[in-house]
Prior knowledge:
Elements: H1 14-21, H2 33-52, H3 61-79, E1 88-89, E2 97-98, H4 99-112, H5 120-132, H6 152-169, H7 173-185, H8 193-205, H9 209-218
Antiparallel strand pairs: 1-2
Helix pairs in contact: 2-3, 2-4, 4-5, 4-6, 6-7, 6-8, 8-9
Amino acid sequence: IDTRRATLKIYPNLLSHVAESVEGLLQRPHGCGEQTLSSTYPNLMILKFRSKSKSGSDIAGSVAKQALKNLQKGYEKLLGYQGADGGFTYWGGNSQSDTALTAYALRFLADAEPFVEVDEKVVAKAAAYLLKQQNSDGSFTQKYSWETTENPQRITMITTYITRTLSMLKLSKPNLNKALAYLKLRNEEIDEPYAIALYALASKDAGNVTDFEAATEKL
């Protein structure tokens, strides 16, 4: 007899539903420097959710254990992509360090620190590299060896992303203020919603309420 069956589940709230679905987020770290970060981050977010949310206890211990294992592997793999100059690279070895990727790595390391042992020397070298990349006008950019000119749109996106990173991690107040001043002068040129949002959040972190409100209104 072809017997059909169904299962009814009743969740007390939406977060409980989400908690049961997080197993699908588990990923083993893989790929280049950027892929390693992006494939490891979901594991980190699971652990953060479990530790801070009231519904976090709904996440099975086996899921959290696997997430922690993947996080540790991702961290160890990421170390292989740090260049001699302190910046992080896409391919490791002697490949060129990337400014935006280094900022991404620093944010990851800061988030991972409560769960795995992070080498402070790695963080210090990466932070020093990142701050050295700031131009005299306050901007950050990345020019690759095959390019003959800089990409203005890329300068805006990289600068806003790194400015937000500086504000989140409180790396250097002088560098942050310099970057914010650069972005404020070019506020009218910024029409990418993500860039506007990053600028607004960084302005708020820096205590620039007027600039935060103006950017929010524009967004």
